[in-house]
User: What shape does this take?
Amino acid sequence: MKTTWLAVAVAAAVALTGSAHADPIDPYLWLEEVASPKAMDWVKGRNAVTVKALASSPEFDKMQGQILEVLDSDARIPFVRRMGPFLYNFWKDKQHPRGLFRRTTLEEYRKPQPAWELLLDVDALGKAEKENWVWEGFTCLKPEYRSCMLILSRGGADANVLREYDLKTKAFVKNGFVVPEAKSDVSWKDPNTLYLGSDFGAGSMTKSGYPRIVKEWKRGTPLASAKQVYEGKADDVAVSLLHDATPGFERDFARRQIETYASETFLVGKSGALTRIDVPRDAELDVEREWLLVQTRSPWTVGGKTYEAGSLVATRLEPYLAGKRELTLLFQPTPTTSLAGFSWTKTRLILTTLEDVVSHIEVLTPQPGVWKREPLGGAPELSTIEAFGADQDNSDEYFLTVTGYLNPTTLSRGVLGAGPPQSLKQSPAFFDGTRHTVRRYFAASKDGTRVPYFVVSPPDQKNDQTPTLLYGYGGFEISLQPWYDGGMGRAWLSRGGVFVVANIRGGGEYGPRWHQAALKQNRLRAYEDFAAVAQDLVTRKITSQSHLGMEGGSNGGLLAGNMLTLYPRLFAAVVSEVPLLDMKRYTHLSAGASWMAEYGDPDVPAEWAFLQTFSPYHNAKKGVKYPPVLFTTSTRDDRVGPVHARKMTAKMLDLGSDVTFYENIEGGHGGAADHKEAAFMSALAYTFLWNHLR
Assistant: This one.
């Protein structure tokens, strides 16, 4: 989700596959050649140093084992997705590290030990084909749910291979659809036709590395003969074409993602003509059956009314396309509330809202005028509740989950209008949560903004010598809500540590306004918020600077880099995972060009002027004492890429800083391809932090 890159004039000095010489402006540019022998030798050398320092002790092995037990536990909830009469699940465990694609019935699923019907063993597939396959998901043609495209990745990269699979025969289709490795987007038009956005050769991908062209591909014909049916511009993020197969509402939609927070959606006519759905470009829209929902990111005046940013409105699609502007307000934010999400069932809409980052659920029933509203329930104090429709084409069935920092996740099922939901599954407690409590505080940021944060610690804990881990993200309108993490509980809380989550600006905890407050030239506000929480923890004597560490990944890795370089005196240790760090080069690397709406364009001098203020790679200076830092990344990360962490590590080593680096050879942007790798990467971070904070 983020990206960051170095030197000022480097973009013109070398292409992505340029030569591995030292550049006078950026002497570490050679590390951008991801798979070059020289770069990989450097990676392997740094990895060996890190393994010897952090991962070569009985204590490390014990911690990794404890985390892996959580990830592989047979007592975990096997979350499911309904398609027709079956519930589908993808499952990883000790015997099947790459996973099993399987299904069962609701009757079986209710049992403590359901009988599962195996569809695909990814480990066996990889072994048979001598490929490092990682499961990335599937998309099936409804309402039959027989024809599916399985999404497989080599090593966990975003680029994937698409292969047709038959759920009836439980086998790949002989001479079926196969899409070569690329960052593709696919939708079934009918059993014999795909809408496919992929890499068709020169000019077919955007500068962000996603599809610019969509083609219609007929069964039995070569991919090269597929007919182009939609295209965007090279500067767009991506385009796609979706077939909506909802019975009675079959239609096609084309979508042009112009930038991260701007898009256009079109209804495709039978002749191929496009009718734009006239909503603001920065709004999110959803079409379900006869309904059009619009979620605003900025004030929208329509039909003589103004709907403020963060609102949700509804109207009937066909009259709206005909020019009528009769909208119904379904949600309007307040200073402390925001819309977290929504989900349809056949006849109703489930709304999830946040109030000071705690979730609540309502059920809305469409009717003339104001829609009927009923509460579905709230989460236990300082927890998270989510509900989603299970089969919106056929019923009002829904699944509901409840989770919290100390509350193992529960899964229930219900049918709206048919009584309360019934419990289906309960995750076990992987650590003793009775020894801790969850509290919510608010810190005052530099400009006076009230910033919420959660503290998980022993009751009334006031020992400022306690190792404390502060976690954050702060970007892309993503909210950090309470969640149960058994691995963290075992590796950190059970050892006596305190865990803190900061809900800083840039996230979505208070809707679009909270996100937009830290965009581009205002990015420093997110870091000021995080620093304010860190200082508040010390002021409240929850911890002290010498025992306070922080962690973040992706955009949170950029956050970590800025805590390191802008606030080096606040933390005793920093962990930056799959990070962006070089904000000069980021738009020229991997998927970086797609994030300019979040950060800005470093090739525009006026924007580089503010981007460089939060470019950790450029702000690391000689003569500054930085806290110890661990950078982790993945060779197969083709979203952000491993280059940021590599170059930052090399620079800080030359500055004489205490820096540790580890690059997983596979794993993609998630950093790990299976549970064993994930446990290893987590154990590295917790061991590093514990060593420096206790």
Notes: The chain has three domains: 10-68+430-693, 78-182, 190-276. DSSP finds 14 helices and 39 strands in the chain.
